[in-house]
Amino acid sequence: MKKEINIGLFGFGSVGRGLYDVLGAVEGKDVKIKRICVRDLTKERGVDANFTDNAEDIFTDPEINMIVELIDDAEAAYGIVRRSLEQKLPVVSGNKKMLAYHLPELIELGKQTATPFLYDASACGSIPVIRNLEEYYDNDLLVSVKGILNGSSNFVLSKIFNENMDYASALKLAQDLGFAESDPSLDFDGWDSLFKLVILTIHAFGIYVAPEKIFRYGISTMNDADIRFAAEKQRRIKLVGHVEKLADGGVYLWVAPQLISRDKYIYSVEDEFNGVVIKGRYYYKQFMFGRGAGGHPTGAAVLSDITACRYDYRYEYKRMNTSLPLHHTNDVTHRIYYRYRTEEDSTLIHFSKVRERYTSSEWSYMVGDVTLAELVAIKDKLAGKDIFLAAYPFD
Q1: Residues 7-66 pLDDT 10s
Q2: What is the reported pLDDT for 1?
Q3: Which of 195, 200, 363, 373 is the one with CA 20 to 30 A from 97?
Q4: Distance from C-alpha of 241 to C-alpha of 239, rounded to nearest angstrom
Q5: Burial of residue 94 (number of CB atoms within 10 Å: 0-12, 13-18, 19+)
Q6: Helices (H), the chain
Q7: Going by C-beta distance under 8 Å and a sequence separation of 6 or more, which residues neighbour residue 54?
Q8: Which of 60-69, 96-105, 290-299, 375-384 has the lowest mean pLDDT?
Q9: Residues spanned by the domain of 336
Q10: Spatial contact of 34 and 8, defined as CB atoms under 8 Å apart
């Protein structure tokens, strides 16, 4: 039922301020921020609002009837969301890391307390992917969800491929514009995309896969040689999250750079935008596109969650109750591009088939087939080395 909402807001960073601005722009006074909890009360915020640094001021306020959590501390966010559900306060969360590690437990708690718990804004910024997966793709026809899930890394890649900027300059520009996370590695080493992929997989296929079981590789080691290779093959490098269901009921997930050909939807997704391709039997492919980074687009997505909570909307997790249970697998083979410098690094990956090889005194590469299980097994050995790999799809 429609009702007046008094929000207790945790966090006033880029997204928190974005929500504040978006709320100020919409008509009506039936949704308002009653109090904002921040870490540092001495910091100048530039707005006339009721700030506190004590969470109890929010949880004990009888007028507050909804919690919105928009902080970057995953464990603190978990405590806020858990307490909200225990107190039967509808809660909206934007912390994708916290959700990726604690979502099954919080789903169960939400069911036990019959309390709305929404987090559409945690995945893909302004694109309502979760709600679409819940409401429209809630059947066995869904085959895969694949796309650009991180706007910050896509912004940097766009500047590199379109404007010939170097990586460091493009990264600094992304940070200056507020697109990058406080820790850049979250975006550019694929963590942000990984956390979002875990969340989307629950809604797409009803299966939870812990982040540590998924192969993740980012773009922070990409260099000019990799950019030239992509250009020679008439492709672009994009950081992609991919989950797919196999015919035998297996579901595989991975996050990695991909060499994308011109005829693919996400080839032309530029700057801080996200693009998600949902593929199914009979309806083939459908494409969703929108801003994936920035305070205002994400703040608008948070407002959408708030409005849905206001009408007691909640996720039904229909795919988790399917009579055809699925299972996680890494038993799938992909073609990849692998650039390395030393002979020792050339042996890190065991290719089942080498399709192309180039060797020089400065750098070398191989193109070949490798199982996802092999990549998962060696993922820790890949860290910190002067190497780069990317999926290299045949189509």
Answers
A1: 999 999 889 999 999 998 886 668 999 999 999 998 988 898 999 999 999 999 999 999
A2: 44
A3: 373
A4: 7
A5: buried
A6: 14-25, 56-59, 74-86, 96-113, 129-135, 151-163, 167-176, 184-188, 191-205, 224-232, 295-310, 343-346, 372-382
A7: 37
A8: 290-299
A9: 330-395
A10: yes
Two tokens at 187? 């975006």
Question: Could you tell me if 384 and 309 lie in one domain?
Answer: no
Instruction: Map tokens 């694929």 to a residue.
Output: 190
Dig out the tokens for 171 from the structure.
Answer: 């990264």
Residue 43 lies in a domain: yes
Report the distance separating Cα 328 and Cα 347, nearest Å: 28
- Residues known to be catalytic: 196
Q: What is the 8-class DSSP label of residue 228?
A: H
- As a whole number of angstroms, the distance between CA 178 and CA 375 comes to 33
Helix, strand or coil, per DSSP, at residue 116: coil
Same domain, 21 and 100: yes
Same domain, 73 and 124: yes
Query: Could you give the C-alpha distances from 41 to 4, 7, 49, in angstroms and in order?
Result: 28, 19, 12
The total of structural domains in the chain comes to 2
Residue 348 CA to its chain's centroid (Å): 28
- pLDDT by residue (tens digit) across 236-277? 999 999 999 999 999 999 999 999 999 999 999 999 899 999
